[in-house]
Each structure stands twice: as C-alpha cells, then as structure tokens.
Amino acid sequence: MGAGQILVDEDQIRRTLEQWQASNAALGSSLGDDDEGMGDLDVSAGDEDMGAGGDSGVDAKGDDTPVVKFVNKVLVDAIRRGASDIHFEPYEDDYRVRLRIDGLLKNVAKAPVKLNQRIAARLKVMSQLDIAEKRVPQDGRIKLNLSKTKQIDFRVSTLPTLFGEKVVLRILDGSAAKLGIEKLGYEADQQKLFLEAIHKPYGMVLVTGPTGSGKTVSLYTALGILNDETRNISTAEDPVEIRLPGVNQVQQNNKRGMTFAAALRSFLRQDPDIIMVGEIRDLETAEIAIKAAQTGHMVLSTLHTNDAPQTIARLMNMGIAPYNITSSVTLVIAQRLARRLCNNCKRKSTLPEHALLAEGFTPAQIAAGIELYEAVGCDECTEGYKGRTGIYQVMPMTDEIGAIVLEGGNAMQIAEAAQSIGIRDLRQSALVKAAHGVTSLAEINRVTKD
To answer: What's the CATH architecture for 176-448?
Structure first.
C-alpha cells in the first residue's frame, strides 16, 4: 500500500505541538535542572538468565529528549538517596514517581499523564523488553554505569494496570553485600553466634523474615566472609540479585526445569563446600538441603516465617522429621530492618517507669539506665531518620531447644525454651536498640509490635 495524504487543520497541528511542548516542559522541570552525576551516565541491558549479559546499545548520554532525561534523573536521584525501589505509576489524572527509602515509599516526582506510555517505553527499551507488548507483565534488567568504576544493576518489572503500565525497578547495589557483618546491627553475642555457625564445616544456617527485611544481605555477607580460593561455593537464586566474583551463581528458571531442588541436586555432584539456596519453599527442596547439610556441606537458605521458633515449626509442618532438623540446622536468624535515628537532630525523650515496663523493658534495664530518643527532622535527614539497622533473633540449635524439637514441640514451646536460656526475641532485641539511642520506640513498635 502506498503512502496516502490527509488534510489536517493548521490550528489542530499548532495545538498538538503546544501540548507536546507543554508536556515536555513540565517533565523537564519536575526534577529540577540539577545534572550533577549525569555526565558519565551510561546504560545497558542485562540478561535475566545471567548468561548473555547483552548490551542494549542504549547510551543515556546520547539522547537528550525530556523523557530520557527525566528517567535518567529519577534513577540517579534514587541511587543518591539510598532507595531500594523505584515506582513509576500511571493513574487516571496523575502520574507519580515514588522511591522506597528506608522501607517506606515517598513521592519524589510527577509527570504529565499523557507521557505515561513514553516513560514506560523508555524503561522497556533500557531493559530490552518488548515495547509493543502492553497486556502482560514483563521482567528485565538494566545496568547503569555511573562512572568508570561504579555500576548499579536494576531489576525491572512491568505490570499492565487500568491506566497504563506500572514499572517498578529494584536497585541491586552490589556494595550492600560488602558492608561487613559489623555494619549490619548484630549485638556482640549475636555476631559471635553467627560467625561460629557459618564457619562450621557442615550444617544449615537459616535466615527468616518478611520480604524486605534484609535476608539477602545477610546471606551475601556470610558468603563474602567465606568466599576464598580454598572453597567451592554455589548458589541457587530467584533471581540473582548481586553478582559475586568467585561464586557459582545459578538463576532459577522453572520453565526450563532449573528449580531450587534441581539446582541443589546438581550442586551435590559439583564437589561443593558451601551451598546457598535462595528459599526453601517445598518439601523436596528442604529434604535435599538437609541431606546436603548432613553430608559435610554448609548450607545457607531462607524461609518466610515471623521468627526463629516458627522456622523450626515450619520445617516440621513441611514433613521433615524432627531428628533430621536437630542433626542439620545449626542456627536460625530472624530479622527485621528499623530506621536509624539521625544523629544530627535526634532528641532525648523520657517515659515514666510504668510506661517503660509496658513497652517491654525489664527492671534491670531500667535500673541500668535507658536513654531514649525520638525523631525530629532536619535538612540532613528530612524526617528524623537516616539509614537502617538490623534487629535480630539469633537462635542456635542448643541441647534444650533440640530436646523440644525431638519431642515434636510447637513454635510456642520452642520459643519458651529459647527464652529460658537467654535468647532474645525480636522485640527484646529491638528494645536494646532503642535503649542505646540507635532508633526510636515509635520505629521499633512499627516493625516488631504485634
């Protein structure tokens, strides 16, 4: 079919151009004119299967259109502010961008609704997704080179909604895995138990907690400590979030038969020293992981449970025999993340003794002295908090706890046994953080109080 001609009213063309220019102007001003950090910006796409690592050929410096500049500024701003996720969200009369900072979402920018498809298309081009497919979710990956030495990966997820495609980017900053255990917030006795457990020649260390509680960082920290040329380390992950030199990382792919269980079976034929499996989700995976822990391998993994005693109960509910649990599991860590108070503006607060007791402080803690602080907010932090710290329950498989497990005890009985030998639960560990002025009572109530 040849090209055709149509007649268009001159005023209509003018109005369309004016609308386009107005949208671009609004977009350009939404994040200001600060281009700091944009000079060395370069973007390429990553392969979600960890194999090809192909390059999309997209150069963020080579395109100065308002949509490209807007997206690039959002990404750079998110990294500067320490965000974990970026949400690009279309609505009927609004288009907003939110960042998840220290666990909470915050509005950071708006864009004209008419540009929602162009913004989604730009993000899909950057992550090598099909820009024509808008009816089904898609997943991809972006590599962002901030400089010659600084690279950040993003995991990209699109979702068709009523008013357009929502796009969420998870920021995968490899530096998080190099923080070191001393930066994670363990108390001295908890850190000692953690290090002793992972340095054993065999056994299983389980990390538990809800999504976004820092389990991945805890596992990667353990791998970083153990990773040297004398050990063969293999991991099965869904997805591979941070790439670790010297570690054999396997991306789960159910469509191709690469399940956690299949990966574990293969690992056992690969002369492993240390195995990490992203999550124990079913009986098959649990049985293979326990067999590995019982046959001379150190196994690290996660479960989605509320605390350490419930993790043991979950394994029993899956169908794992109690004697297999006590002979393989060496340590269970439950964790949460709480926002740190800003040292620049935090303010002392006082509570009467009866209120402290009601919060859960012991008479001994009160007698020793408790210095509580509250959030204020300043130019440095905005809302009184800056960064996050871990809150942990670190429960080794002691003789006392093992005896309860062998008797088929439930989570409550295991928790009572743990308390009897001085193992702090999450709430008690959180109160220690508040008593030391690391975080506020309001914050620990948000993350630990039922």
So the answer is: 3-Layer(aba) Sandwich (3.40)
The model's pLDDT over 378-387, given as tens digits with 9 standing for 90+, comes to: 999 989 999 9
Q: From the options 3.30.450.90, 3.40.30.10, 3.90.226.10, 3.60.130.10, give the CATH code of 18-172.
A: 3.30.450.90
Q: How far is CA 316 from the centre of its chain?
A: 27
Residue 61 has pLDDT above 50, yes or no: no
Question: What's the number of CA atoms in the CB half-sphere (13 Å) around residue 394?
Answer: 19
The pLDDT assigned to 13 comes to 59
Burial bucket for residue 260 (CB in 10 Å: 0-12, 13-18, 19+): buried
**Residue 204: strand pairing partners:** 299, 329
* Residue corresponding to tokens 């959180």: 430
Burial class (CB in 10 A: 0-12, 13-18, 19+), 89: buried
The pTM of this model reads: 0.84
Which amino acid does the sequence have at 346? K
Contact yes or no for 216/299 (Cβ under 8 A): no
Residue 62 in this model has a pLDDT that exceeds 80 = no
Q: Are strands 385-396 and 329-341 parallel, antiparallel or unpaired?
A: antiparallel
Token pair, residue 108, equals 């950071």
Query: In degrees rounded to 5, what are phi and psi of residue 56?
Result: -75, -15
351 CB-near residues (< 8 Å, 6+ apart): 359, 372, 441
Backbone φ and ψ for 312, nearest 5 degrees, come out as: -65, -45
Q: What confidence tens digit (pLDDT) does each residue in 375-431 have?
A: 999 999 989 999 999 999 999 999 999 999 999 999 999 999 999 999 999 999 999
| Residue 360 in tokens | 């859960």
Identify the band that residue 167 occupies on the pLDDT scale cut at 50, 70 and 90. very high
Chain CA centroid to CA 97, Å: 19
Judged by phi (left if over 0) then psi (alpha if -120 to 50, else beta), residue 30 lies in alpha
Pairing relation of β-strands 164-172 and 151-161?
antiparallel
Of 321, 331, 251, 252, which Cα lies nearest the Cα of 291? 321
Query: Can you tell me whether residue 189 is helix, strand or coil?
Result: helix
The answer to whether 128 and 54 have CB atoms below 8 angstroms apart is yes
For residues 175 and 177, what is the distance between their CA atoms, to the nearest angstrom?
A: 5
